[in-house]
Amino acid sequence: MLRLMLFRHAKSDWPRDVDDRDRPLSERGRKAAPQMGRFMAEAGLVPGLVLVSPARRTRETWERASEAMGDHLPAMREDSRLYLAPFGLLLKVIGETPPSVPSLMLVGHQPGLQELAIRLVGSGGIEDRTALDAHFPTAALAVIDFEQEAWPDILPASGRLERFVTPKLLGASVDD
């Protein structure tokens, strides 16, 4: 069984004269990222490998989330292809993951993460699926399980949405 976790960057700021790649997290984002990291650690949602977009907001999201995870730190690699990547490219990146990695996390952006999740999920709880279809807010986490044993074998509608969690569901009013 394989597990894919899709973690959207936390809420970012829009400073004037700052390139999109260099946008930092906002105050809300700086609070939401560690909250999600603590949740992941407590729920046992610690991937074997984390691939992070090179954008500042995704790197800061993962840094803050992983600091809150304590000793449960997975291997992390920055992957430039994840920056604003569409569904097809994200699926290609996933397919390159070695079989020795049973649990993979992508830390990335909208709309690619939501499209990827919607297209990969074929089953799961109706409430989580409905929420995912409607909106993939900042700092949200989609956890998708697959029966396949190799990442290149992942197909559309072959995954089961195990859970879809947002900071708001954890009791904070920090997502959008």
UniProtKB/TrEMBL annotation:
Gene3D superfamilies: Phosphoglycerate mutase-like. InterPro entries: His_Pase_superF_clade-1 (IPR013078), His_PPase_superfam (IPR029033). Pfam families: His_Phos_1. PANTHER family: OS09G0287300 PROTEIN. This is Histidine phosphatase family protein. It comes from Paradevosia tibetensis. The lineage of its organism: Bacteria, Pseudomonadati, Pseudomonadota, Alphaproteobacteria, Hyphomicrobiales.
